[in-house]
Amino acid sequence: MFPFKKSTWTSKLWVLFLVNMVAVLALELLWLHNAYQKEYKQFLMDVNHSFDSAVRKEQSYRVPINDMVHPGDITIQSCGKEEIRIIRQCPVSDTIIFDNLFGQSLETFIHQAFYELRKNITPLNIYCLADLFAGELQEKNILLTFTIDHFNTATGEIMETTADLRNPAIPATYVITTTISASTSLRANLQFTNAAVFKRITGAIVVSVCLILVALISFFLAFYSPQRKEKEIPEIKAPVANNKIFKIGHYHFDSEKNELTYSNQIIHLNRKENAILRTLCEENGHVVERNFLLKEHWGNAGIIYSRSLDTYIAKLRRYLKEDSSIQIITIKSQGYKLIY
Question: With respect to CATH, is domain 245-339 assigned 3.40.190.10?
Answer without folding.
Answer: no
